[in-house]
Design brief:
By secondary structure, the chain is an alpha/beta fold. The protein has helices spanning 19-31, 46-59, 89-92, 107-124, 136-146, 188-191, and strands at 37-42, 63-65, 129-133, 165-171, 174-181. It has one domain (19-191): Phosphoglycerate mutase-like (Rossmann fold, 3-Layer(aba) Sandwich). It has six helices and five strands, in the order αβαβααβαββα. The longest helix is centred in the middle third of the chain and has 18 residues, at 107-124. This is Histidine phosphatase family protein.
């Protein structure tokens, strides 16, 4: 997405993929070539639906909207944060608890909704593969929970870039591996720095 001001989009409507973002979505869809995709779910936000479209076109699967895949709730939504923000009283008063976090949706709540949707999608695509298009923090929380890591973390250390693919592989009911790929890595320089939570 073109985001020169570094705005935290959060759940705000009408934020669409830039031309570069559209190219990234196409590369992500291409990454799935040769796979047996049986289901495609996406967050209802415009940028997620636009990311899902090339996968739907490639595999001929319908796109299902699911609110559980939506971006994390965040009181900084719509704001531009910078290194100067740490001196802003409006920002500081929300940063009293990094473990919950105090500025947004609780990490445990994000994990609960992501686990719920993963269970539904696994059941639908049993024995095959599914794609869920979500947002950075929900994906990162699902991954940390799958890897049995503590949920609180440093946002600047998330391994979840634009149009990346985080894979959970199951054998029957058991999670056997977590994978990560960046099909659009060559285009990151064109998109500018990643804004956590955007």
């Amino acid at each position: 997405m073109h985001n020169p001001d570094g705005i935290l989009y959060g759940r705000l409507p009408e934020f669409h993929l830039s031309e570069n973002g559209t190219d990234m979505a196409a590369l992500a869809a291409e990454w799935f070539t040769g796979r047996d995709i049986a289901a495609l779910y996406t967050s209802p936000l415009d940028r997620a639906k636009e990311t899902a479209r090339p996968v739907a076109d490639e595999f001929g699967v319908g796109v299902r909207l699911d609110e559980r895949l939506i971006e994390a709730g965040n009181t900084f939504q719509g704001m531009t944060l910078s290194s100067r923000s740490v001196r802003d009283v409006q920002v500081l008063r929300r940063l009293y608890n990094p473990f919950r976090p105090s500025w947004g949706e609780p990490y445990a709540g994000i994990v609960a909704r992501m686990v719920d949707v993963i269970k539904v999608v696994r059941k639908e695509a049993w024995g095959r593969e599914a794609v869920c298009v979500s947002h950075q923090l929900p994906i990162w929380m699902a991954r940390r929970a799958a890897e049995k890591k503590r949920l609180w973390h440093r946002p600047d250390r998330r391994q979840c870039n634009l149009a990346s693919v985080t894979s959970l592989t199951f054998e029957d009911q058991k999670l056997v591996s977590v994978g990560y790929a960046e099909p659009a890595a060559d285009l990151y320089r064109r998109s500018g720095p990643l804004v956590p939570g955007a």
